[in-house]
Amino acid sequence: MNKKLKYLFACPFLIITFLTIKTLIKKAKPEKTLTIGMMSGWAPFMTINSEGNYEGFDVDLAQEIGKQLKINIEIKDMGTLSATFIAMEQGKIDCIMSGLDITKARLDKMQMIPYTGETIKSFSMIFWNKIPTNIKTIYDFKTYPNATICVEPGSSIEKFLDQFNFINQKAFSKTEEMILDIKYNKSQAALINTDIAKIWMNKIKELKKIDIILPEEFMVFGMGIALKKDNLQLSSKIQKAINILKQNGTLLKLEQKWNTKESSC
Questions:
Q1: Distance CA 144, CA 25 (A)
Q2: Which of 32, 36, 147, 150 could form a cystine bridge with 141, CB 3.0-4.6 A?
Q3: CB under 8 Å to 243, separation ≥6 — which residues?
C-alpha cells in the first residue's frame, strides 16, 4: 500500500479519535456551580430534616434559581450569620440566602436582591407563657436587674439591641434555642423578626409577644439574597431568575408551601 493510501485510511481514524477525545474532555469539565451560604435552624427558610437533608423555603427556591440559570446549586450550612458574611467576603460562597433582612446598613455594604417578605417597622419581643405586667416597651427592662434578651448574633436585631446598655444579650443562632432559654427562665425574653414570631406562636401557644417599634434606620425592607458589591454579573442573573419565578407563580407556590407569609397569631 503506497503512502497516499495510508494517509487516506488514516485521516478518518485520526478525525474520529480527535473528536472522541474532545468530547471526553468536554464531559470531564466540571459543571458551573452556584455556592449558597445558609444557616440551618431557621424555619421555614432552612432546616435539617430527620434524614439529615436540607429543607425549607430558601432551599427550594435555590434549586429553582439553579434551574433558571442552568447551573448546579451547592448549599453550605455556615452555622452562624457572622460566619456566613465572612465566607462571602472570602469568596468561599457566592451569595447568602437565609431569610436575610434588607436594611439600609446592609445595602451600604453589599448587594441585596429582594425576593420575599414585607417592610418591617417593628420587631417582636417574645415571652414564655405571660408578659410581665410592667413591660410595655423595651425601655421598661431598665427596672430589671441584669435583664437578658436572646438575639441572633450578627443580625440587624443585635445591632438594634446594642444601643440599650441596660440589656444583656444572649446569642443564639437558632430560634428554637431561644425559645428553650426563655421557657426555662434563663432569659427574660427573645427579640426576633415579627414574621418568624407569628409562625412560632402558631406552633407554640405558650409564646406571647409585644411589638417593639423601630426607628427608620433599623427598619427592614423585605428579605434579600446577599452578594458582594462588585458581583454585578451574578446579581443580574439572579435578579432575572427571581423575576421569572415571580411571573410564573413558582415563588408564590413556595411561599404558600412554607407559610412564609403567615399572618395570624
A1: 68
A2: 147
A3: none
The 10s digit of each residue's pLDDT in 219-239 is 889 999 999 999 999 999 999
C-alpha cell, 88: 462571602
What string of H, E and C letters represents the secondary structure of 99-117?
CCECCHHHHHHEEEEEEEE
Diameter of the chain measured on Cα atoms: 106
- Grid cell locating 244: 421569572
Q: List the 122-128 sheet strands across, edge first.
A: 167-171, 147-151, 189-193, 122-128, 207-213
For the whole prediction, is pTM greater than 0.70?
Answer: no
Residue 101's alpha-carbon distances to 63, 96, 187, 191, in angstroms, are: 21, 11, 24, 14
- At what angle are helices 250-257 and 232-247 packed, to 10 degrees? 80
Residues 72-118 have pLDDT tens digits of: 999 999 998 899 999 999 999 999 998 898 988 899 999 999 999 88
CA dist 174 and 43 (Å) reads: 9
Strands of 78-198 (E only): list them. Answer: 95-96, 110-120, 122-128, 147-151, 167-171, 189-193
**Which domains, ranges and CATH numbers included, belong to the chain?**
33-119+223-257 (3.40.190.10), 122-218 (3.40.190.10)
SS (H, E, C) 221-249: EEEEEEEECCCHHHHHHHHHHHHHHHHCC
Sign for the CA dihedral angle at 254, 83, 217, 109 comes to: negative
